[in-house]
Write a structure and sequence with these properties.
Layout: H1 3-19, E1 29-31, H2 49-55, E2 61-63, E3 68-70, E4 78-86, E5 89-98, E6 104-110, H3 113-126, H4 132-149
């Protein structure tokens, strides 16, 4: 095969993979700690489906069929939260990021608002540099944890 044909073939394969990631990528799981998304797990605890929809309108899209809250309006990829409900209120939260290849990157399953606050405080504190909204979220989380611990 001439050299130019193999280059075209390689380019076609790369283009195809960009359009249709390999099926194996969907089963790839990695774990992550805290990542600043502008919404933290503690903000979701105790909310009903209606409260989720109202409180985060324009920020998160809550999908009742699979109990996920997505950041992207038209996509189920990217950053999201997996939600578990007990008595119609959020009782567990797990962050999930699906990258461009379909790889699932999951955070810990958090089972209480206190645990969620501690997770956020720890993550935000360890950030080498915080944006203004992250700094505000850290102050808020510390105050909420202090009140919750009383």
């Amino acid at each position: 095969m001439p050299k130019s044909s193999s280059i075209i073939t390689l380019a076609a394969v790369i283009a195809l993979l960009a359009i249709q990631p390999p099926a194996i990528a969907q089963y790839c799981h990695h774990h992550t700690g805290y990542v600043s998304w502008g919404v933290d797990e503690y903000e979701l605890f105790g909310l009903t489906e209606a409260e989720l929809t109202q409180k985060f309108k324009g920020t998160l899209r809550y999908d009742k069929t699979d109990s996920h809250a997505y950041f992207n309006e038209g996509s189920n990829g990217g950053p999201q939260f997996i939600l578990t409900f007990i008595d119609k209120r959020v009782s567990k939260v797990q962050r999930l990021f699906i990258d461009g290849a379909g790889c699932h990157i999951k955070g810990p399953v958090i089972s209480s608002k206190k645990e969620a606050l501690e997770f956020s405080i720890d993550g935000l504190t360890k950030m080498p540099a915080r944006a203004t909204d992250d700094e505000q979220r850290l102050k808020e989380a510390k105050e909420l944890l202090r009140k919750l611990s009383k």
